[in-house]
Amino acid sequence: MKYKSLLVVLFTSVLLSGCVDWIYRIDVPQGNFLEQKNVDQLRVQMTKEQVIYVLGKPVVQDSFDHDTWYYVYEMKRGMRKRGEDFRKELIIQFNEGKVAEVTGDFELPEEFNTPLDEI
After folding, report:
1. Closest Cα partner for 32 from 12, 53, 13, 59?
2. Would you say 78 and 25 are in contact if contact means Cβ atoms under 8 Å apart?
3. pLDDT of 56-95, one tens digit each?
4. Mean pLDDT of the chain
5. CA distance 98 to 96
6. Do 49 and 56 contact (CB within 8 A), yes or no?
7. What SS3 string covers 9-69?
8. What are the tens digits of pLDDT across the range 12-51?
9. How far apart are CA 108 and CA 71, in angstroms?
10. Residue 21, pLDDT score
């Protein structure tokens, strides 16, 4: 009798493990979605207003340093077959209200160090 109930539990758990992909789970995107073509428009010496026009408002602004903006995008996949979770970020440092340095997961264009005034 003991083996019979153990066999039923084991058989039921094996059958239910096949139903894992039947449950639909949504992807959860959070933050600023940035494309490389938008980042390619950034130039040194751009004002904060120009950066907002190109990239939008940042999700995170440092409370203690108003000259650092964080653009963070995170995608949590609901199901593994749609891809892996990922996170991308772009950090912009301003000096006297103008872009001084950009770091993060995006490639900067060759023209980044050429201010818009000189184009």
Report:
1. 59
2. yes
3. 999 887 788 889 999 999 999 888 788 888 999 999 999 9
4. 86
5. 6
6. no
7. HHHHHHHHHCCHHHCCCCCEEEECCCCHHHHCCCCCCCEHHHHHHHHCCCCEECCCCCCEE
8. 777 767 666 677 788 888 988 999 999 999 999 999 999 9
9. 15
10. 63
60-61 and 28-31 strand pairing: unpaired
Please name the residues in contact with 65: beta carbons below 8 A apart, sequence gap of 6 or more: none
- Residue closest to 86 by CA, chosen among 100, 98, 75: 75
Tokens of 86: 């990922």
The residue to which tokens 């996170």 are assigned: 87
